[in-house]
Amino acid sequence: MANAAWFLFDSDDDEAAVKTSACVSGGDPPASAATHAYFAPCRAALWSSEAVTATSESFVAALVADARARVPAVAAGLRVGARDFAEAHVAADAILAAAYCAADADWPAVAQRAEDARAAHTRRLERGNWPHAWWQRSHVFALGFRVAAAVSTSAVDETSSDLGAVMLEALSMATLADSADEIPGWLGACLRVAERRCLAIEAQGDKDEDEDDEDINTLDDNKHPPLTAATIRECSSSSSWMIPSRPPFDAPSIRDDRSIARVDALTLSVADFYARFVATETPVILEKCATPAMGWAPTETWRDMRRLLSLENGTAGTRIVPVATGGFGEPGELGVTSLGRLVRKSLRRSNQGMFQTSSRLKQKGFKEHISTPSVAYMSQHALFHQIPELQSFIAVPKFALGRLCPDTGAVNAWLGTEGTRTALHRDAYCNLLCQTAGFKYVRTYAADQTRFLYPEETTHRGGEDNTFSRSAVLVEAPDTEKFPKFAEARFEEALLAPGDALFLPRGMWHYVRGLTTSFSVNFWWN
Fold first, then answer.
1. Which residue did the predictor score with more confidence, 27 or 171?
2. I need a surface site. Which of 277, 460, 500, 508 has the fewest CB within 10 A?
3. Quick check: 88 and 72 in contact, CB under 8 A?
């Protein structure tokens, strides 16, 4: 039955490599993701020369003209069949008012009405998925109006501090488009002008950045002399720009009786993958999946963060990305920063801190190294849509079963320091977590262990398929008095190394901790 069920999927099999869907990238060797249909809408709509060079004035003019032409139809679409959904009328009234105020350049009113529409969209989403595309169109307009209101004021002040979150939400909406025609022509310009304003806010709040960078640039000098001839050689070939090439000496030991199974991705057919792991809901580590043989950039390319910042003619570091400080269960904040600042301020310190503490404590016989003082994590982010050149570093794995499409899947980047940790959680999608640089520790719990895991709903969607769940338990330091049954839960575990890809069936509980600075890429699909 499993082999028969396989034929319900599009074929990416290396033995048949037939392109049976616009969402499938076949061929052997695998094609770069830069040619994959999943990325095509954003490549075409967000990165035109007009978008890249847009000014605030040209963006606002394009938005106002489009709103005059289309917002009345959007509002009417929201009201259709909305008798049972009061939020539809609230959203329709608010988005219309925002459009009228934008035409009059009344930007404080635009900001307020756009936020009213955005809030109504969010309340409706909490009851279940948006019922039709008019909600998405209205939400994109609301986000565009919020950005326009922010960039149309002359001052850079604290009231604009959430602009980055609005911009990233707009980017996420663009990734849902099945075609470039679904993305407004002004959205690429919207992202770029918002990005520039966010960089100005960041510079104003961090006037001592140059001095801080000077401190970072001394991390590799004689201020921290290596301890032995061996570490001198290692340090000379290592740099704070380089993600560690081996796990820390105190990485968890994996017991054979609970180790996640491993198979060679180069010899595994897609049909066998489906029959052995997808159909049986069994996690597996696909070794060599994220390697040059499978169309991915070499590990050394991923390790060197200077290579990342050099992309897009050296402008990749100006991309605005989400960042969370602290791991699950620890004090922290959610915010935004530039990719360059994340690398300079957090990841380089993590790399050098790992080298120094591991070397010194290992020499002195300690069993643990000191954690990086500041944990920072860019998680679940559409970085490949922001930096199109980065798409050439990856290939969509054949093990995504030809199901990677904008409306049913996602490609996310995860870049963080040593010490990042997630909540124990489960997703509403099949997941392929590919490790490109650094090392991670993972645990998985099958669905039948849920009764021991103390789950709590984190995003309620009216019982629909996109509900996510997480556990309140700190996996590696559980409160046994508060969660006594957790010790009874059976789990499997593994260390993810560069080139590995962990397949997680839909609904499988999992926990991930960064053992070093780490770069991962995941593919969600249904």
1. 171
2. 460
3. no
